[in-house]
Every structure is written in C-alpha cells, then in structure tokens.
Amino acid sequence: MSHVIDRDAASLREEVAGKRRELAALEAELAAWEARFGSAATRTDTDFTTVSGRPVRALYTPLDTADDEYLSDIGLPGEYPFTRGPYHSMYRTRLWTMRLFSGFATAEETNRRYKFLLERGQTGLSVAFDFPTLMGYDSDDPMSEGEVGKCGVAISSLADMETLFEGIPLDRVSVSMTINGPAVMLYCFLLAAAEKQGVPFEKVTGTIQNDILKEYQAQHAWIYPPKPALRIITDIFEWSAAHAPKFNTISISGYHIREAGSTAVQELAYTLKNGFTYVEEGIARGLDVDDFAPRLSFFWDVHNDFFEEIAKFRAGRRIWARHMRDVYGAKRPESWRLRTHAQTAGVTLTAQQPYNNVTRVAYQALAAVLGGTQSLHTNALDETLALPTEHAVRIALRTQQILAYETGVANTIDPLAGSYYVESLTDELERQAEEIFAEIDDLGGVVAGIESGYFQGRIARSARRFQEEVEAGDRLIVGVNAFEEEDATPLEILRIDESAGQTQRRRLAELRERRDEARVRASLGTLTAAAKGDANLLPPMLDAVRAYATLGEIRGALESVFGRFKEPVSF
Amino acid sequence: MSERKIRVLVAKPGLDGHDRGAKVIAAALRDAGMEVIYTGLHQTPEKIAATALQEDVDVVALSILSGAHMTLFPRVRKLLAENGMDDVLITGGGIIPAEDVEALEAQGIGRLFGPGTATSDAVDYIRSWFGESDRGGDA
C-alpha cells in the first residue's frame, strides 16, 4: 500500500516553507512564554532530573522533534528501524509473555512453584539458579557450603533438570534460564531433559542468558577468561542455528549493568556494544550473520524514571536495527529487530515499608509495556528481604494481568509515539549511546575495556553518585529518606534452610554410584580434547551430560584447558 | 592522643557476586579518611582471615547478599580468632533477615547494615567502635 502524493515541486516547497514558518512562530511564542512564566518558583523537593541525572525541561514542543522524519526515524511497528516495536501487530496478536523469574532449594520444590505459577496464568518459565550452579559448582563442592538452594534452585546434573521439568512439557512451555558462566552446560541439561521427554531439539523454545561480557562488567558470575568464554558462546550460536533453531541463544542484558549502578544511557550503550561484539565474534568465526542474529535476544532493566525507560526501549530497537543493517550488513529483517525481555528494577525496591514495592513494580511494569517488551518479570514486594513467598509472587503476577486486561494500554501499538518529550528523549539517548560506542572503540573494544576495568569503574562511579544524591536528600526514596516510619508488623518471609544442601549431597552420592563411571570419564576426556582444539563443544558436551557427568565435572574439564578469569579489583 | 587511620578490610566471601554495596561502602569509608582494602569477589573465609592478618586491619566488613551469612560470618570470626585477631570488629551487611542479625550479634558479630543504609551510619559506627576499643588511641 503506498500513498503516492502527486505533487509538484513548487507545492511541496510551499508546504515545507509553511512548516518552517509554523515552527518559527512557535519558537517566538515559546520564547515569549518562557520570558513571562519561565522564572515561576519551582519546587525545592526535586531538581527535575531523571534518576540517571538527566535534566528534564518543563515543556517539550514540536521544536524538539522538528528533525525527526516519521518513516526513517520512527517508522511502523515491525518495520525498520523498529522504533515502534519488533512486530507488526504487537500485543494485538499476542500479549508479552508473563515470565516470573523463579527458583529455590531443590528441583522438586521449584517444580512445584512452577506449577503454581503456570496454573495462575504465567505464560513462560524463567529459571533462577543458586550460586553454586551459577558459578559451575556441584552442590557437594566445598565452595558450595551454606549456599545450596539459597538464591535459586540447585542443579548439579541432568537428573536434577529432569526433576525440575517433571510434568512440564518442554515442547509447549518455553524456558528461559538465567545462567552465564556455565550456560552451555545448563543448555545441554535442558536439551537432554527435553530429549528424555521425547521432545526433539528443534521444538525446544526458550532462552539462555549466556551473556558473559556483562558478567565481567556487572553481574560477576564468570568462570573462564573472555577469549574461551566467547568461543563457547560462538559455538552455541553455530550449533543452535542448525539444531535448535527456535531457541534464543543469548539474552544480551542491560539489567545487571543497571542494577550494578549505571545510568540509563550507560545501560543502553554498554548492552548494545556487547551485542555488537557478539555479532563480530560470529562473523569472525565465518558464520553468516543472518543465520544467528535472528536468535539474539535482549534484556532491559525497567527502572523508576517512567519516560526515560520507555525512550530507552525505543532507542535500543532503533540503534540495533541501524547497526545490524548498515554496519554488519545483515539482510533479513529478523536480524535487524531487537526483541527483549524486561525486569522491573530490583534495586529500586525498599526493605522499609515493603508494600510500597507493589506500587513501584506496577509503574515500572507499565513503562515496560509502553516500551514494547516481549516478555516481563515483575518483582515481588518482599524481594529486598528474601526470595518471594507464594503470596508475594502472586501479587507480582496479578500486576501484569491487571495491566494487560484492565488498563487498555495494550490495545494500541506504541501509544507514546509522537510525544514531543518521548521522541526527543529517544533521539537524545541514541545520540549519547553513539558517543559511548566511539569511546569504547577508542579503548580498543569491549574486551579491552573489561580488562582495564573501564566498565566496572564507570558503573561504580554512577552508583556512588546516586548514593551521594540520596544521602544529601537530593533524591527522595519514599520510606528511606522521606516519609519514614517503623513498620508495625514484620513481613512473613521465605526461609530456606540447609536441607536443600543435605538432599543434594545425598543425591549426588547416589548419582555417582549408579552411573557408568567409565562412560563419564571417557566423555569428559573427549570434551577436554575438543576444548583444546577448535571443534564445536556442544556435541561432546551433550554426550557427557547424557552420561550424567555433573556440572562441576564438566566445568572442571573445561577449566583445566581455559583457566579462570582474574578480576581487576578496584572500587 | 593521636588517632591513626582506621584500617578496614571490605570483603566479599563465598560465591555472591553482588558488589555494588561493598564498593560504595569502601569508597565512603575511604572518603571518611579510613585505610580501605577491598578483597574483590569470591573469597574464601580462609583467604579473608589471611588478608586481615597480613594487612593488620582493625575492622573486617563482610558483604553477603546470597543467604549464606549464617555459615560465612561465624567461619570468618573463628578464623580471625585463630589468627589472634579476636579484638577485630566484624561488621558488614547485605540481605540478612532480622532474626539472623540478632543471632549473629549474639555470637559476637558487630552491627550489620541492610538495604537503605546511609553510608554515614556505617562510618559513624566504625569510628565510634574504634574510639572505644583498645585499638583506638595512640597506635
């Protein structure tokens, strides 16, 4: 469908001149308005900056978006540059996936919590692993003592994974796994568990976070140094394109960068630059960018400043599309379009007056939906204190359902497009992100920046600045430095005791008894040899997993070849 | 009576990788004039105690958000005592439920600081502890 405007050059020139006259008139009116009213007394309880420190003016007008061209800058949803959304019909066809991050204690207990959530309308699963699993240690490793099941579910082998998804059909429920250092191992556990259910790899849907660059920068759940870690990720891109084409091989994340203290534009820029780095790795391997780019996915934080977050989501899509098409030469629209999961900002929740967190999460969820997220996790009100209770997590899920079914915001696509404020903020974020890309290029790229501590330093500096603002009373947090009061009744919180550790230790002992030890040794030997060369690691790892080699054994085999990352320590 | 610089070890024991708070506290203590050593992540209790001894610190501040505090605080305290450092203040923070805070204080751990803490509270607490301790006063 095209509207060919049958106009001659003269009438077009007149229209453009007319628009210019209109803007000039507005500029004059605005100047007069500011002269009369611009010095009105302003509130002293705020400095009118976003939580990232960005100054916000009193008023935005067409003058702020005069340079935007609708089709090339804003466009249509599902069309380059995807500012308005990655899909043509967005929530009109399908709502975002309601995917609450969840896991604790043992696989059985987490399986029960998954069923609880699925029964109540959750539409996708998201696995939270405990710290030993996140770092690649078996539950019975000495390093795991006191930590098993405390922050997430303990998974040490395929057997635990089978239990985790017992009664949950992996060809019908998509599974996102927040796992990075040992992502390839947990991916293999999931694929092998699906295989045990009779589900072929091609039908498995979900995501592995698998974003090691942001681990070095922010979340810190690394194992190996950057070079072998990137090799593993590229192996995953290559193997999955052929064998698990419905699986998102990576969730390129800003969430953790933001939670560690960065500003919105740092989150945007560092995440996208990490994404470009992964694309470059794939291309350097000799892969066709259009073979793996469509399965790259993203993960944004949803912080407090409502409009800054919405603009960030929109700018992110536009920047990614522009670079993928014009810098990396991707040809398929699926390679240009940024699809994202989002999580409401854990760091904004307070331990003081925790019920206020329900409100914070609701506003943040609204921003995520107006930003066009594909998938959303809403935090529970008690998460500054512990992992969520059933009661708290249910409210978090209902928050999304109320948003979806009662507010009407999902009825139309990208409703804030055209807002003078939102469009000019989207433009500003894009401009500032491009400046940061150039800065990172000057340092020699992302890995060089990680090794020199550039990202870690910038993030820590932003975190300190924010804390100084709070302590100076320049940034108010309700219940913390404003409207404080003692809570009458303490909340009932979830307690996880040491029994998960005990159960896991027993299970692992039994596993080692009943498995074919020779087969495990042989498979680990094959895997180690593959790691020394440049064969794709997925096939030998799947064999080791099927033999019930444990997470720690597999991690150790690779560590003997790759070594361990050494953190550049500073504060 | 001269006041020498208070020496503080800020440590991240166990597998917990959340260091935003530890770094903000370390910077605040340094800006308040203390000598601060930050261990970096993934430290074993043994390594922390060895570093505390080596650096001859007055205070060991542990940051734990992983739920492993009931294992890690007591272990560090025991190892410090074995190193002859039972007059060192053990403080810290993270995600530690109120009942566990009480249980740890009963075991001889100092004040613990949770979410929403102002860094000035941590600074004041350490200064006042030091002033009243045997380590305070002339070096």
Care to give the gist of this entry?
Chain A is of the alpha/beta class.
List key phrases describing it:
heterodimer; A: 571 residues; alpha/beta; five-stranded parallel beta sheet; 23 helices; globular; B: 139 residues; Rossmann fold; 5 helices; 17% strand
- From N to C, what is the helix and strand string of chain B? EHEHEHEHEH
Oligomer state equals heterodimer
* First-last Cα distance of chain B: 9 Å
- Give the class-level CATH name of chain B: Alpha Beta
Number of helices of chain B: 5
Q: Please identify which CATH superfamily of chain B we are dealing with.
A: Cobalamin-binding domain
Strand content of chain A: 5-15%
Which percent range describes the beta-strand content of chain B?
15-25%
- Biggest β-sheet of chain B: count, sense, barrel? 5 strands, parallel
What order do the strands of the largest sheet of chain A run in, or round the barrel if closed? 1-10-9-8-7
Number of domains of chain B: 1
Strand sequence of the main sheet of chain B, in spatial order?
2-1-3-4-5
How many strand segments of chain A?
10
Could you tell me the radius of gyration of chain B in angstroms?
14 Å
Structural class of chain A: alpha/beta
Q: So how many helices of chain A? A: 23
Write down the overall geometry of chain B.
globular
- The CATH architecture name of chain B reads 3-Layer(aba) Sandwich
Largest sheet geometry of chain A = 5 strands, parallel
